[in-house]
Design brief:
The complex is a heterodimer of chains A (748) and B (207). Chain A is globular, with a radius of gyration of 25 Å. Chain A has a seven-stranded mixed β-sheet with strand order 5-4-18-17-16-6-7, sandwiched between helices. In chain A, strands 24-26-25-28-23-27 form a six-stranded mixed β-sheet. Chain A contains 23 helices and 28 strands. In chain A, 29% of the residues lie in helices and 17% in strands. The relative contact order of chain A is 0.16. The two termini of chain A are 24 Å apart. Chain B is an alpha/beta fold and 207 residues long. Chain B has a single domain, classed as Alpha-Beta Plaits, CATH 3.30.70.20. Helices cover 21% and strands 22% of the residues of chain B. Chain B is built from eight helices and nine strands. A five-stranded mixed β-sheet of chain B has the order 6-1-8-7-9. Chain B has a two-stranded antiparallel sheet with strand order 2-3. In chain B, strands 4-5 form a two-stranded antiparallel sheet. In chain B, strand 7 and strand 8 form a beta hairpin. The radius of gyration of chain B is 17 Å and the shape is globular. Classes of the chains: A alpha/beta (748), B alpha/beta (207). At the A-B interface, strand 3, helix 2, helix 7, helix 12 and helix 22 of A face helix 1, helix 5 and helix 8 of B.
């Protein structure tokens, strides 16, 4: 029944997003905290250490945590104001049921009755249409314990193939590329390895706004003598003072990487010893990049030949280096190929597995790393095992004490789940930590698909934009209301600590999931009494394979300020740097440092293909999307925090003055962008910091302010990541202000 | 973590990414909760993402105090210029208009001039100021001269400024490129310079 119960504006009036500002104890200049709780920020993958000030079961502020090694007290504005999400007027304090007669379209419901209704709906749908007719969408901002439980819930309790997670929109291209090249998916180095390198190469990563704490690592590297190369269609704050900026045309990264490798080979800027002894596949790649001359590279990428030569020389002649990338190269229909191209450059240089020689993707979500390792991905089992592998299935089935034959086969990715809903194959849906109506591309399709569900239950602490379509909403827990672990950007497992209790009828997500299992009469395997019990089972389940957490206890995490996996035994200190000469892993068994039977890394031919939807006369401009620093992902939390909304209230459409002049658009004018899927009217921001053939819009907003109504649902064939970073649009000065102007507050 | 007493405040605008962590953290400071005393502005957003953070420079001879008709602005023994004394401040705005760095803010609701006091409640207890604690780029840095010498290899601190004929020495230092010879920063003439980032911009479209 997943349509809106009342008009959007009525739902917003009741459930927000409304803004929380400092008030009460949070504004008192002499409010003494009862205690300081050491934990981490709830937002991005940097996972800055922070101390929350707690008084009367509320978080009233923060104090920097100077001793946490990654950020040493540093925080971005989101981390500073994160505490305002607590005691929020929009907080869900009871279960809700869809009720067209209630104000805002939902009425409060007894928690147990709501759980009963959910179980009944699951039972009905699965007995009528089969186990796979019920789907689950989970998220990578959950603790690793919860992500493990979500995978187990799908594969053991519901026995559905159809579970996937919002990391599908973030980390999967990097993950797939890393698996193909290294056999393992984790940042190869701790960030400390950035500090004393000759060159830091940043491709498609708006470091200053999306991974702010990494900024100081980059700047410190520069103080120590590193050259900074930034590849981006926009002159982002990190690019402003870099040594070499390559203004790449969106979607052409692989051409650049191939072009650089071409020049490395031509000038013999290669580590032959490393290539010969520790890799395979170089000859094929070398043959492939032969055609990527500087001229052809320049034609395809839009970067000058001179700059390509400069970049190749800086990279090629360096003794040490750290290459890093993010969604800018990964959000493409050839995202995996882009990643492989970047890795080819690293492997040819031989600069990996040693101090000051690094490579890493910058993971986006809080638990972007841990959340992609332990079984909530559609084809995965704990420890990074494969759901399609008979041995892996048997291994996990034994730990779970279930019949392996009852374990479902691999399912489909998050977007395909919506296509299956649209096709009538999936009738019921449970979502947690995911707001697909804002975050998935071509979101009008997502909205139509939601309308076809027989039953939809959402677990969240606020009524997020997608949850407005739910039949039942269960009140989950905020980050500071539960404990557990996450694995941050470097692969360091850290401890999230509980600061306060859940308010009202809200409860910790792992309790909600177990309550559903119990109401279904399938509580076997779902009787954990604490996150620590889940963790201890996860450690056992991960043992012996790639993502080995077996030696990581809560106590060790606290004692060491985090433990890098793999950590295969109690006396193992963890592994900050991967691929060190002589290192052991369960795949190579001592044959070499990389995670293949022969211990060697793989070069992969990475052919260039244009974006799925290139520009043409009808839609002559490239739309690219991304983030701003004061908002996070779909904004469920950050669009409710007043000071963050004040900082950047509404999405603006960035365009170059050359384009603006041609179209008669002035800074601050309303401008309308149209793609083949939808249109949007926003205020223009005319800046020289973007390519003239490209426009940029951040994606954190919902409804008529959501740029994902225009983006394309084309996906990478391997990783299934959507192509957020390129689609074709046309642009014009708006005939009139948009319908929402003056009706909705900026964050709504 | 206790910090050494010899800590000083340094600003390196070339590091600033405009994230406003300092602005947001300043309003969490216990002495002026809810009010941010930091100024952070784009120099010219149409041309560049360059931003400049401004905290109180804590002048040796503070212009704000010199122009105050009510003698409301005091300097602590260790050189920190304080927010106006509430019982004395007459909210005349002289300090706001006169400060060459544009630091003091008039809180019209409270009829009180408020300004950055280098987190006196924190620094007097050996803690770092809020802004320099959180700053992700460390454009705002609180540490010793020795730390600056060893960490900021490209820079050197300058704490003499010229605004037209007015010369000012400050407790807070600005980091400038190490190879520059200048003994003071001529702020008035620097106002005619282009925003940084334009070299990058030219690289983008020259060919």
């Amino acid at each position: 029944m997943a349509t809106l119960p009342r008009s959007e504006i009525e739902i917003i009036e009741q459930f927000g997003p409304h803004l929380a500002h400092m008030h009460g104890a949070r504004l008192e200049t002499n409010a003494e905290a009862e205690r300081l709780v050491k934990t981490h920020c709830c937002f991005c993958g940097q996972q800055c250490g922070i101390q929350l000030k707690v008084k009367d079961n509320a978080v009233i502020g923060f104090e920097p945590w100077y001793d946490f090694p990654f950020n040493k007290g540093m925080l971005c504005p989101k981390g500073v104001k994160r505490y305002l999400q607590g005691a929020h007027p929009d907080r869900l304090l009871t279960a809700l049921q869809r009720d067209v007669n209630a104000p805002g379209g939902f009425s409060p419901m007894d928690y147990s009755a709501a759980i009963g209704k959910v179980a009944q709906a699951i039972e009905t749908i699965q007995s009528t249409h089969g186990a796979n007719a019920f789907g689950i969408l989970s998220g990578a901002s959950l603790t690793t314990e919860k992500t493990y439980l979500m995978g187990k819930f799908a594969h053991m309790c519901l026995k559905t193939s159809n579970i996937d997670y919002n990391g599908r929109l973030c980390m999967v291209s990097a993950g797939a590329g890393n698996k193909k090249a290294f056999g393992v998916d984790r940042a190869a180095n701790p960030w400390e390895d950035m500090l004393h390198t000759d060159v830091v190469w940043i491709s498609g990563a708006n470091v200053a706004e999306c991974a702010p704490i990494t900024t100081n690592y980059v700047w410190q590297a520069r103080e120590n003598g590193a050259k900074i190369i930034v590849v981006d269609p926009r002159i982002t704050p990190i690019a402003r003072t870099c040594d070499l900026f390559l203004p790449i045309k969106p979607g052409r990264d692989i051409a650049l990487f191939n072009g650089i490798l071409h020049l490395m080979i031509e000038n013999d800027w290669l580590d032959h010893e490393f290539i010969d002894n520790h890799t395979i596949g170089f000859e094929e790649v070398a043959a492939h990049v032969k055609e990527w001359t500087p001229r052809r590279t320049a034609e395809v990428t839009g970067i000058s030949e001179r700059a390509i030569h400069q970049a190749a020389e800086i990279w090629g002649t360096a003794r040490t280096s750290f290459l890093t990338h993010a969604r800018g190269i990964e959000h493409h229909t050839h995202g995996v190929q882009n990643v492989l191209g970047a890795i080819n450059m690293v492997l040819a240089s031989g600069r990996i597995g040693r101090p000051n020689c690094g490579y890493a993707t910058i993971t986006g979500q809080a638990n972007g790393q841990g959340g992609r390792e332990h079984g909530q991905k559609c084809d995965q089992l704990p420890g990074g095992r494969d759901l399609g592998n008979p041995e892996h299935r048997a291994h996990i089935a034994k730990i779970w004490d279930m019949d392996e034959r009852e374990m479902p086969q691999p399912g489909v990715d998050a977007y395909e789940i919506f296509r299956k809903i649209d096709a009538g194959e999936i009738k019921g849906l449970l979502s947690i930590c995911f707001n697909p109506l804002v975050s998935l591309p071509d979101s009008d399709f997502v909205k139509r698909a939601l309308g076809k569900l027989d039953f939809y239950v959402a677990i969240d602490f606020f009524l997020n934009d997608t949850a407005r379509h739910a039949d039942i909403v269960l009140p989950g827990s905020l980050h500071e209301e539960d404990e557990g672990t996450v694995t941050q950007v470097e692969g360091r497992v850290i401890k999230i600590n509980k600061a306060i209790d859940c308010p009202g009828d809200a409860r910790q997500d792992w309790i909600i999931i177990q309550d559903i299992a119990k109401a279904l009469g399938r509580e076997k395997g779902f009787t954990f009494a604490s996150p620590r019990e889940v963790w201890d089972e996860l450690r056992v389940a991960s043992k012996g394979w790639i993502n080995d957490y077996s030696g990581i206890s809560y106590e060790k995490i606290v004692a060491q300020n985090g433990v890098f996996w793999p950590c295969p035994s109690d006396d193992h200190p963890g592994t900050p740097r991967l691929f060190e000469p002589g290192s052991w892993n369960p795949i190579a068994q001592g044959n070499g440092p990389f995670y293949f039977p022969d211990g060697k890394a793989r070069f992969n031919v990475a052919p260039y293909t244009p974006p799925a939807e290139d520009i043409d006369n009808e839609y002559p401009l490239i739309l690219t999307t991304g983030r701003v620093i004061s908002q996070f992902l779909s904004g469920t939390q950050t669009r409710r925090i007043g000071p963050l909304v004040d900082q950047y209230p509404e999405p603006r459409l960035e365009l170059h003055p050359q384009l603006a002049e041609k179209l008669g658009i002035n800074d601050g004018d309303w401008a309308t962008a149209q793609s083949r899927r939808g249109e949007i009217t926003l205020r223009a921001q005319v800046v020289r910091t973007i390519r003239p053939d490209t426009i940029f819009v951040p994606y954190h907003w919902a409804g008529q302010k959501s740029i994902n109504r225009l983006t394309i649902a084309a996906q990478d064939p391997i990783s299934k990541i959507p192509e957020y970073k390129v689609c074709a649009v046309r642009l014009a000065k708006a005939a009139a202000p948009p319908e929402y102007a003056g009706k909705l507050e900026p964050q709504q | 973590m206790a910090v050494p007493e010899r800590n000083e405040f340094f600003i390196d605008p070339s590091r600033c990414i405009g994230c406003q962590a300092c602005v947001q953290a300043c309003s969490e400071c216990d002495t002026h909760k809810g009010h941010s005393m930091i100024h952070l502005e784009f120099v010219n957003r149409a041309w560049s993402t360059q931003t400049v953070p401004v905290v109180c420079m804590h002048c040796d001879s503070p212009t704000c105090a010199e122009v105050c008709p009510a003698d409301a602005i005091k300097k602590s023994g260790d050189g920190v210029v304080q927010t106006a004394r509430k019982p004395r401040c007459i909210a005349c705005n002289n300090c706001v208009l006169a400060c060459p760095f544009g630091v003091p803010k008039m809180n019209t609701g409270a009829e009180l001039m408020m300004k950055c006091d280098m987190c006196y409640d924190r620094t007097s207890e050996g803690k770092k100021p809020m802004c320099a604690s959180v700053c992700p780029s460390q454009a705002l840095f609180f540490g010793t001269r020795e730390e600056v010498e060893s960490l900021r290899l490209r820079s050197r601190p300058v704490n003499h400024f010229k605004f037209g004929n007015q010369e000012i020495s400050t407790k807070v230092s600005m980091l400038v490129p190490r190879e520059t010879q200048a003994e003071y920063l001529d702020v008035t003439s620097a106002m005619n310079e282009k925003t940084s980032g334009q070299v990058v911009f030219l690289n983008m479209f020259e060919e």
